[in-house]
Specification:
Layout lengths: L2 E3 L6 E3 L11 H14 L2 H23 L1
This protein binds zinc ion (ZN).
Length: about 60
Amino acid sequence: MKTVKCPVCKKTVEWSSNSFRPFCSEQCKNHDLGKWANEEYRVPVEELDGGVEIKDEKEKKGEKD
Ligand SMILES: [Zn+2]
């Protein structure tokens, strides 16, 4: 049978009968989704960087006036 290592807890689990693959259990699957949720914090930061650039451009226009 084919087995796969759970990327969260490194436990070897059977692939074909595992509905949470590549994770060993729903717990490990949710753990990985939590990691993705934390990654999303980086997206608003990038949007803030764009906002700073727009604000900077407005200040440059103000100097021209
Ligand atoms: Zn696991």
